[in-house]
Sequence to fold (388 residues):
Amino acid sequence: MNSRSKKNEQPEKENMVAAVAALAKEKNISKEVLFSAIEEALKSAYKNNFSKEYGMPPSNANVRVELNRETGVVRLFARKTVERWVTDEASEISIEDAQKIQPSYQQDDIVEVEVTPDNFRRVAAQTAKQVIVQKIREAERGKVYDDFIEKENEILTAIVHSVDPETKDVYVELGKTEGVLEPAQQMATDVYTPGERFKVYVLEVVADRRLARPGAKHGPQVSVSRIHPGLVKRLFELEVPEIQSGIVQIKSISREAGSRTKMAVHSTDPMIDPVGSCVGPRGQRVDRVVAELRGEKIDIIKWSADPAEFVANALNPAHAVNVFVNEPEKACRVVVPDNQLSLAIGKEGQNARLAARLTGWKIDIKSQSQIDEQLAAEEEQPSETAEE
Fold:
């Protein structure tokens, strides 16, 4: 090696050690992990580029890389088994040659022979640089994952970046990373144009998006939703101080996104009205949630431990005359005034459907006249039977 090469070699070694130290401190990665990764990369580089010069095909090259943690000096050693008769020079060494290195070597011992190529220093520097860059990317991806895994089931502000014309997936910016809003999680009332801002519910965070979406780039993926009931829950938690403090509790939510939501609330303080707290002064609190959900109607219901009362409340805005409860089947029959039957059922059955989901009870809705006719028929039945 000429004097100029030696002069260039020292800064490369120092730069490697300094770069490892800086990365370890900045990204909170163990220096030993970084050095070990560089050693493995150097081993691969040697096998692919230099092992044939020493009679070792890449697949057979059994080498150990020694990287000095203080000086950055790299040395490579071929590991060979001591044999009486050598049949594979790539992996074996004769007893005679082994004992020239150290007289104590015997049959089946492992001998390490230094095979560091003269021009391997530059390869080492380039390889170390590549490993460090890779580790930086991995550390950044890991930090993104660590940051966002804690945000599962929370809401974030998203900015539309682009829409895939084929899959209709909406890609949104979530601070330092990108989220995906799949068609099944989109609201029909939303307009997904680049730059549009809205709140999203974080459904799932995976460490490598390739596991969820084959062919995607390496890195964490954040799946978000605009239709999840949790979005409504989190929005009210932001708007209502009584919910934040725990005085008002959200007991259950049923939702048909973009159209209507029913939410059951309860107050642990009898002096605090849970419904009024969620509605807010002049309806300001609920109005802000409705605006975020692009006009979705929201019915705020007072929860009750009494199933009859809870079911009656859940059918709001209809008024229930009576509720008959069948506990074993967890079903109930609700009687409403004739002029409120369609209101209780709702357009295409939506009001009754949401009420059933909210309460967890099967609900059969009848008008007062239907019940009267049924009772009259039941009263006549015994006399008809007697005449027969």
Remarks:
- The domain at 308-388 is CATH 3.30.300.20 (GMP Synthetase; Chain A, domain 3).
- Residues 120-149 form the longest helix (30 residues).
